[in-house]
Write a structure and sequence with these properties.
The complex is a heterodimer of chains A (230) and B (112).
Chain A (H helix, E strand, L loop, with lengths): L4 H31 L14 H29 L8 H4 L2 H27 L2 H31 L8 H32 L8 H27 L3
Helix pairs in contact in A: 2-6, 2-7, 4-5, 4-7, 5-6, 6-7
Chain B lengths: L1 H7 L1 H9 L6 H25 L5 H23 L7 H24 L4
Helix pairs in contact in B: 3-4
The chains are: A mainly alpha (230), B mainly alpha (112).
Chain lengths: 230, 112
């Protein structure tokens, strides 16, 4: 079989085009890897992640919810009739202080989990995330113990206006912490199944925002409900 | 038109939203230690109040400590210090609305 000069020249051109295409693909892949750690959302008209914006809007609206519960507590506590069981009779400040420290540390472990996910260190991410969920569970366990102790001292949900407001406020917060723990465990399971990697670090960041919000609400509750003079 | 394309380019987008440098692990630990100290101070005022501090002083001290802790968590742990100003404004609207509505409500019920 004889190969003509024209055929040789066409073959060279094809191989050159193939090399250029391969080089372009490599460049494209490199570019993708550069943005991959945060590229789990599409480009938007604002240039911001809509998921993250939505979480911030949700947290803004949660300020109104907890504002209502805290104000109601302050209002009803002031109107507690003389002689009825009140905050000074039941609160155990050293115990609640320990719970506050636990929740505070959980915020640190959460932010360390996110930092490790951003770095691509998934093993440490899982460890810190598990620590966060564990600390949250300890906090909830403490709250359950506190509620039981109050109940045994004669302070039920409908005992008086103070107890109704107190249990509603701290109960709502406890429910938020519980939902946060469920979200943390979901992240852990997703990561272990290989469906949550550094390319979806923003999902971790959004759950982290929720967790830190739960922490800042407790900062308010701890001071206003437990430490402000009665 | 070319500006629009640049705005919608994913690489440009990532640069605008994530160009800030995240704090190091050690910086996070330092913030957590500071928060722990502030919490310890709060608890200390509770025990100290049994002896000599007036209620007015306690209210002021506790409020300052509470606001400091709140701001540190939001700014550093929630990254609002480094993130887009739009996120900051959205959250501020919620806080300001809550403060306005409930301060008015508490005043109307003569709590002060």
């Amino acid at each position: 079989m004889t190969i003509t000069t024209d055929e040789v020249s066409t073959t060279d051109e094809v191989s050159e085009v193939a090399e250029e295409t391969a080089a372009e693909e490599t460049a494209a892949q490199t570019a993708t890897h550069t943005v991959a750690p945060h590229a789990d959302h599409q480009a938007t008209s604002t240039g911001l992640s809509h998921n993250k914006l939505l979480m911030w809007m949700f947290l803004g609206s949660e300020c109104l919810l907890f504002g209502a519960l805290i104000s109601t507590y302050l209002l009803l506590r002031e109107r507690l009739p003389e002689g009825e069981i009140g905050p000074n009779d039941v609160f155990d400040i050293p115990f609640t202080s320990a719970s506050s420290f636990v929740l505070l540390v959980s915020s640190l472990t959460m932010v360390l989990a996110l930092a490790n996910m951003n770095r691509g260190d998934e093993r440490r991410f899982r460890i810190w995330l598990l620590c966060t969920a564990l600390l949250g569970s300890i906090f909830i366990g403490g709250q359950a113990y506190e509620f039981t102790a109050f109940y045994n001292e004669g302070l039920g949900y409908t005992t008086n206006i103070f107890s109704s407001a107190f249990f509603s406020l701290t109960g709502f917060h406890g429910a938020h912490v519980t939902i946060g723990i469920i979200m943390l465990m979901s992240l852990l399971v997703l990561n272990m199944r290989g469906r949550l990697g550094p390319e979806r670090a923003e999902t971790v960041e959004i759950v982290g925002l929720y967790w830190h919000f739960v922490d800042i609400v407790w900062i308010l509750i701890f001071t206003i409900v437990y430490l402000f003079p009665q | 038109m070319s500006t629009d394309i640049a705005t919608h380019d994913p690489t440009t987008h990532e640069t605008t939203t994530h160009e800030h440098a995240h704090p190091s692990d050690w910086q996070y630990i330092k913030i957590a230690l500071l928060l722990a100290v502030l919490t310890a101070l709060e608890v200390f005022t509770y025990f100290e109040s049994v002896h000599n501090l007036s209620d007015a002083v306690l209210y002021v001290v506790l409020t300052v400590l509470m606001v400091l802790k709140f701001v540190y968590v939001v700014a550093w742990f929630m990254h609002l210090k480094f993130d887009s100003i739009i996120f900051r404004r959205v959250f501020q609207v919620g806080i300001v609305m809550a403060l306005a509505v409930y301060l008015i409500m508490l005043t109307a019920f003569e709590i002060w």
